[in-house]
Predict the 3D structure of the following.
Amino acid sequence: MEAWCEKRFKEKYLPLVRPFSMVPDLLKRVRAAGLKVAVASSAKKDQLDHYLGIARVNDLVDEATASGEVEESKPAPDIYDAVLKKLKLKGADTAAVGDTPYDAEAARKAGIRPIGVLSGGFTEASLRKAGCAEVYPGPASLYCYFDSALLAER
């Protein structure tokens, strides 16, 4: 069943996936501020590579961790712990941007301050309840408010 679902998703829905506006610009801004960019995803490695390509950010990501590299996926902190290890950073020195309560919960467990974006279908209240210190309508608004955002403080 899982193989059928994956095949159907790849054939029918994946071609319809479009990037959020301003994501490459946001990551360029993060890097210009002297920060590293990492992706800690619950996706499988091949899916993650494909999504990074769709978003046009492959060359803007310093490190990435996919679900196959860890024992447990979000809301467990394993994915964030793995990417912190790759970056040789402590959670307290970082921030994570995510669009689900699971992202925020996993980040908090790894000692990372979560920032929420409303692109994942979850409400601001649910993201804040999960621990997001800031919530933005999407990546474009985080880009616009970057200088005053928690992300810029890292």
